[in-house]
UniProtKB/TrEMBL annotation:
This is Spermine/spermidine acetyltransferase. One of its GO terms (molecular function) is diamine N-acetyltransferase activity. Its EC number is 2.3.1.57. It comes from Streptomyces cyanogenus. Gene3D superfamilies: 3.40.630.30, The crystal structure of the spermine/spermidine acetyltransferase from enterococcus faecali. Signal peptide: none annotated. InterPro entries: Acyl_CoA_acyltransferase, GNAT_dom, Sper_AcTfrase_N. Keywords: Acyltransferase, Transferase. PROSITE patterns: GNAT. The gene is bltD. The keyword Lipoprotein does not apply. Coiled coil: none annotated. It is an enzyme of class 2 (transferase).
Amino acid sequence: MRSPGVHLREITDDNRDAVRALRVRREQKRFVASVSKSLKQAAQHPEANPWYRGVYIGDEPVGFVMLSWKPPAGPYKGRHFIWRLLIDKRHQRRGIGRETLTQIAALVRADGATELLTSYDPGDGEPWPFYQKFGFEPTGDIDDGEIVLRLTFPVQ
């Protein structure tokens, strides 16, 4: 299912509060930090080279995505890592997360990447099935208790 009109938008003073108001379902909270916490982490860790956007349909914010974009050091040095992906509880199961991943994958490929990484905390209700359907595979690495996944791009 493709959700038309999904696009990424920079977070500014004009839309920050609306994006920060997005929430996941109660049972998902243990897997996904809030937008406010994500923005705080981005500010606290500039060395991770955070890159974040609001996910929109038209003028309505429906999600949030944050990457560590080719950080200069650390375990993901020079790589693209999805640090946070959140779709608001009112907009889930409509293909928005998948479309967001499609757009992120296109952006990192355009930046010369051969892979896109992410990780998840295992447990009941975990996001693994979502990532698996998209084509992510476990790398065999564990980062701070989270299972690291990789989406490999075919050589063009």
